[in-house]
Amino acid sequence: MTVSRIEKIVDLLHYKSKEIIMTNNFSVLFKKYSVPVLLLILGIALLIVGVTKDQGAMFMLSSVLMFVAGGLSLLYSSGKMKTLFLVIFGVLAGAAGIVMLSISWTQVSDEIATQERNGLLEKTAKQNLEDVIYIQKEYQEKNGVYASSWDEVTDFVMNGTVDYVFSEGSAPSRPMKREESKFLYNDNRPLDNNMSDVEAYLLSKWVENPNKADYAGFRRDTTQVSLYKTKFQSRSYLEARKLSGVGTFYPDSLRYIPMTKGKEVWLLEANDSLMASDSTFAPAIKVSGTLPFINKKMYFGSLTSPNELGGSWENE
Fold first, then answer.
1. Which ranges of the chain have pLDDT less than 50?
2. In a shared domain, residues 275 and 311
3. Do 181 and 151 share a structural domain?
C-alpha cells in the first residue's frame, strides 16, 4: 500500500469521526435543551394569549410560572444554575401549584353553585307566577275582576271555591222522542240526530219524563269545590313541584320574590275597568318584579290590554 493511499484512508477516518462527534453532540443538545425550550415557548404563548384575550388572574399566574419554569430549566441545563436552587424553586413551584389548584377548584365549585342557584331562582319565580295566573283566572271567573291585593289572593287560595263538573254515565244514544223535543223546544223540529249531552242533562231533570229509565246512571252536575284542595293539593301538582325542585307550595309566600328572604314583594297592579278595542270595559292586571343575583325582570299581564295574562318567559 502506498503512502498516499494510507493518507487518504486516515483523512477519511478523521472526517467520519468528526461527523459522528457532531451527530452525537446534536443528539445530546436536543435531549438537554428540548424540554426547557418547549416549556419556555409554551410559557410565552400562554402569556400572549392571556394578555390579548384578557384572561383572568389565575390564567396569567399559571402562564408566568410556566415561563419562569422554562427559563430556569434552560439555565439549569446549560450548567449556569446550581441544583440546590432548582430544588428550592421546585418546592416553591409545587406549593404554588397546589394553592392555585385549590383556588381554581373553589372557583369552579362556586361557579357551579351559582349557576344552580340562578337556575332554581328562575324556575321558582316562573312556577309561582304561573300559579298566580291560575288563581287570578279563577278569581276573575267568579268575581268579574282580578284580585287587587296579595291578601285577596291568599284568602281566595285558602277559602275560595271553583266550579267542578261531575260527569257520570253517557247520554242515551238515540234521537229525542217527540214529547221530549216538545218539552225542551216546544216545536216540531226534525228528530234525525242523537241528542246532545246538554239535552240529555235537561231531560234527566224532567221529573215527568215518561222515558226517565233511559237516563238511569246519567249524571252531569256542577258543584263547588275547594280551589286549594283540587289544584294545589292534587297529586299531579305536588309531584310536578317535587320533580322540578321548586319546593313546597305556600299560599302566603306567593307574594314574595324568591330568594329575597321575604324582603321583596311582587308588584301587583290591577284595573277593574280598562276600555277594550270594542269600547267595552274589562279588567286588567300586571304582576312584575326583579329577580335578585341576576337582576332579571319577570312579569305577566298588561295594564294596557284587558285580560292579557301572558308571561315574559314565554318568549325566551
1. 1, 3, 9-10, 12-24, 94
2. yes
3. no
For every residue of the chain, DSSP letters joined together read --HHHHHHHHHHHHHHHHHHHHHHHHHHHHHHHHHHHHHHHHHHHHHHHHHHTT--HHHHHHHHHHHHHHHHHHHHHTT-S-HHHHHHHHHHHHHHHHHHHHHHHHHHHHHHHHHHHHHHHHHHHHHHHHHHHHHHHHHHHHHSS---SHHHHHHHHHH-EEEEEEEES---SSBPPHHHHHHHH-S-----SBPPHHHHHHHHT-TT-TTGGGGTT-EEEEEEEEHIIIIITSHHHHHHHHHHT-----GGGTTBPTTSTT--B-EEEEEEEEE-TTS-EEEEEEEEEEETTTTEEEEEEESSSTT---BGGGG-
- Kindly state whether residues 52 and 10 are assigned to the same domain: yes
Residues 310 and 265 in one domain: yes
* Residue 145 dihedral angles phi and psi, to the nearest 5°: -135, 170
Q: Tell me how far CA of residue 31 lies from CA of 17, 77, 104, 114, in angstroms.
A: 21, 10, 33, 47
| 139 and 252, same domain (yes or no) | yes
15: domain range? 3-81
The pTM of the full predicted model, rounded to 2 decimals, is: 0.65
The verdict on 134 and 183 lying in the same domain is: no
d(Cα 137, Cα 309) in Å, to the nearest integer? 9
R_g of the chain, CA atoms, integer Å: 42
Count up the domains in the chain and report the number: 3
Say yes or no: 57 and 206 in one domain. no
What are 259-281's pLDDT values in tens digits?
999 999 999 999 998 887 777 88
pLDDT value for 44:
80
